Amino acid sequence: MTTRPQYLADLKRLQRETDMLLANVASFTDQEITRPSQCEGWTRGHVITHLARSAEALTRMLDNALTGSSDPMYPSPEQRNADIEAGAGRPAKEQLADLQQAHAAFMARAQALIDTPGAAEQVDLRGRPFQSHALPNLRCAEVVIHHQDLDSTFELHEADPDSQLDALNSVVWMLQGKPEAPGLTVTTYEGDELVVGDGATTVIGERDGVVDWLARGHTERVRTTDGSPLPDVPRW
């Protein structure tokens, strides 16, 4: 169980990471926001819109913990994709304001979670139980990974080490929920060790390099400990 001081420290760290993201987004012109991102088939506008809509989705998860409701993150996968597509072409200032508002709403509900006795300890996230007090960590993972996806000035190694750990935990958690994922023991030079499935293949790299492989398929900074080829993994 996360302690109150740790939870509040995580919120402050999320705010710092988001401030850096927002400053970068604020620098984009209407033309620059239409450039390709590191997410295949998506422009920067798609990534920014996704970040705003995913903040709203995680705010719904916080609401579930606070009220006992069971709303899904998104009405449907089709609606999620349609909303991203609809918002991707908006002017840069409109997208910035949208992201700012969605972030502020998430932070307000995240603060309410720690201030509300009796809030649910777990929520249903994509059909699996997830610790409510870890929702800010999940949001932080999205912020730092997608900040790099904007293909601008920020790279994942610039994120706080704890934010990199949030990203690692997030991508591994998602992988653990995919039956097609290979068995992995994911280790890092920072000392992390996480297991997917039967843990058959051990991989190692720096924390941000492992995230880059699991989330985006970049293999340059990751290797197996026995010298075998890296297995194919479903993308985050």
Strand order of the largest sheet: 4-3-5-6
The first-to-last residue Cα distance is: 26 Å
How many E strands?
A: 6
Using the alpha-carbon principal axes, give the shape: globular
Residue ranges: pLDDT <50 for 5 or more in a row?
none
Number of discrete helical segments: 7
* Text of the CATH class of the largest domain: Mainly Alpha
Major sheet: 4 strands, mixed
Mean pLDDT: 97
- The helix-and-strand class reads alpha+beta
Radius of gyration: 18 Å
Number of domains: 2
Helix content: 40-55%
CATH superfamily of the largest domain: dinb family like domain
**Strand content bin:** 5-15%
Q: Classify the fold: give the CATH topology of the largest domain.
A: Four Helix Bundle (Hemerythrin (Met), subunit A)
Keywords: Isomerase, Pyruvate
GO molecular function: isomerase activity; metal ion binding
Protein name: Maleylpyruvate isomerase
Pfam families: MDMPI_N (PF11716)
Structure description:
A 4-stranded mixed sheet has the order 4-3-5-6, with helices on one face. Helix content is 52%, strand content 11%. The model has no long low-confidence stretch (mean pLDDT 97). By secondary structure, the chain is of the alpha+beta class. 36% of the residues are buried. It has 2 domains: 4-154, Up-down Bundle (Four Helix Bundle (Hemerythrin (Met), subunit A)), CATH 1.20.120.450; 171-236, Nonspecific Lipid-transfer Protein, Chain A.
